[in-house]
Amino acid sequence: MLGLKLPTDPRWVNIVEKNIEEILTDHAYCEQKAASMAISLIIGFPEKSELVKEMTSLAREEMGHFNMVHDKIVKRGWVLGRERKDEYVLELMKFFPKGGSRETHLVHKLLYAAMIEARSCERFRLLSEEINDKELADFYRNLMVSEANHYTMFLKFARKYGQRDVVDEKWQQLLDHEATLMQKLGKKETIHG
């Protein structure tokens, strides 16, 4: 369903299990950044009423997820660590050339968001199936559904605001690029890295 070209190596879960505090901190910031991205789309494209409505809901939902992850951190006796750079997102967002029309810029942002959500969904599925911590397995199973919905929503908007065949071609190119990125990543206790 997600169309990802390179699945995460299941051994990534072993890295996560040795660094639960780190993965939860990274995950919390991923949720916060997703909320910020939704707000930036509202600010950048206020004339797109349907997008504004969906991004308003998404920002609330992502901050709700942030709060849930933060609760897991606190429940385990930890505190939220410092934000870290997301190598995956930084590298992913270099793919499309800068410039172009506002519509092209919007389509690129939406495709990046769809890709990030797709990879998050895939990682959450893996955690839900492989992690030994039952509480976290259930937690990630529930979040996996949200991420899948977000992925399809962003792709739908990209196809709405861009020419369908062009958007689909760009999506395939981004999927290929993302697979190349993932060959170098997947060895850290981060959601995407």
How is this structure best described in words?
The protein has 7 helices and no strands. The chain has helices at 12-17, 20-44, 49-75, 87-92, 102-130, 134-161, 164-184. It is globular, with a radius of gyration of 16 Å. It comes from Flagellimonas aquimarina.
Could you give the distance between the termini? 22 Å
**Percent of residues in helices:** over 70%
Mind telling me the CATH class? Mainly Alpha
Number of helices: 7
Give the number of DSSP strands. Answer: 0
Domain count: the total is 1
* SSE order, one letter for each helix or strand: HHHHHHH
Shape: globular
Q: Unreliable stretches, pLDDT < 50, 5 or more residues?
A: none
The value of Rg in angstroms is 16 Å
CATH homologous superfamily placement: Ferritin, core subunit, four-helix bundle
How would you characterize the largest beta sheet?
none
Q: Which CATH architecture?
A: Up-down Bundle
pLDDT average, as an integer?
Answer: 93
Class by alpha and beta content: mainly alpha
How big a fraction of the residues is strand? under 5%
Topology:
Blueprint (H helix, E strand, L loop, with lengths): L11 H6 L2 H25 L4 H27 L11 H6 L9 H29 L3 H28 L2 H21 L9
Helix pairs in contact: 2-3, 5-6, 5-7
